Amino acid sequence: MTTSRRPTIIDVAREAGVSKSTVSLVLQNSPSVREETRVQVRDAMAQIGYVYNRAAANMRMSNAGLIGLVINDLRNPFFTEFATSLQMALAARGYATVIANTDESAELQDQVVGSMIEHGVSALIICPAYGDTQATFDALARGGIPTMQMLRRVDDRLDIFPFIAPDYLEGSRLATQALINAGARRIAFVGGLEGRAVTEERKAGYLEALAQQGAAPVIIAGRPSQEFGRNAAKAMQRDHPDVDAAVCFNDLVAMGMLSGFHESGWRVGEDFLIVGFDDIEDAAHTYPSLSSVHCDIAGIGAAAARTVLEWVENGTAPMPETRMPVSLSIRQSSGAARSGGGAANSGD
């Protein structure tokens, strides 16, 4: 490469075929960069005659404490509560968080991840959107940026992109068993788009509990939204009059069902039993109050912060997969008043 100006870090990145932030990590001797990438960058520096100006680099270190957080849907209170708890936990350790909402778009996700890499984040935490994500994660792998998948998994390279989530299977098993214990005769699983890993996991415990009872499942798939839940309640009365209980994919679907049954004159907690999933803050304040699988969102956020900072500061990569424990918040919607139960295990 022939040029009349002094080569820059961007020139090194272009020559090595990596991101600018990866070159920065190599220059800082970060343990998060793979050895083959480190050699590749050093070779590029030698090839173009790049000289590291440490004094100037020290003036740019304000980004060294910056963590990128990419969320698939900040409109969903579950992800909002997670993002808030994680940001607060990182702030307590002196790190700033830059947050981006991808609105369930894999294309937008690729764009914001690229932007965060270029701005020199120390690590990325991604609640990923579904879709074509291969190029996004390939770029992260080449760049050697410490990256964690949270709550959803779209890339199976867990040695590079470790995954942390609640124990979804155990959660739906607990929810289904609670409805069986409350006297439900026919239980449906409502919500969640078919084929998505998070849907299949949340459904698996439900299927397991029903199989132990010798009962047949009723699956009503759809968008995990209040609108879908409201419409599903009305359709259930028409198409599945024998169903008297539901495990919902999330609390939004469950709250929509509360509205739909109220409009139709069915009494949730008496005529029909419901358990949601996630136990967002609003679940305890609906009427009737919503039973839900408690995922300890704040605890997951704090654990994620500890894990990623151990990776960034000490080079200690997380376990490939971590499942956080869940519990069941029993409230009125699953028949607590009818059966004399309460919220002793509410987790509120």
Layout of secondary structure:
Elements: H1 9-16, H2 20-27, H3 35-48, H4 54-59, E1 66-71, H5 77-92, E2 96-101, H6 106-118, E3 123-127, H7 134-143, E4 147-150, E5 163-166, H8 168-181, E6 187-190, H9 197-213, E7 218-220, H10 226-239, E8 245-248, H11 251-264, E9 273-278, E10 291-294, H12 297-314, E11 321-324, E12 327-329, H13 336-339
Parallel strand pairs: 1-2, 1-3, 3-4, 4-5, 5-11, 6-7, 6-8, 8-9, 9-10
Antiparallel strand pairs: 10-12
Q: Give me the Rg, rounded.
A: 24 Å
The portion of residues forming beta strands comes to: 15-25%
The class by helix and strand makeup works out as alpha/beta
CATH A-level architecture of the largest domain: 3-Layer(aba) Sandwich
User: How much helix, percentage-wise, in residues?
Assistant: 40-55%
Order of helices and strands: HHHHEHEHEHEEHEHEHEHEEHEEH
* CATH level-4 homologous superfamily of the largest domain: Response regulator
Largest sheet: 6 strands, parallel
Features:
348 residues; alpha/beta; Rossmann fold; 3 domains; six-stranded parallel sheet; six-stranded mixed sheet
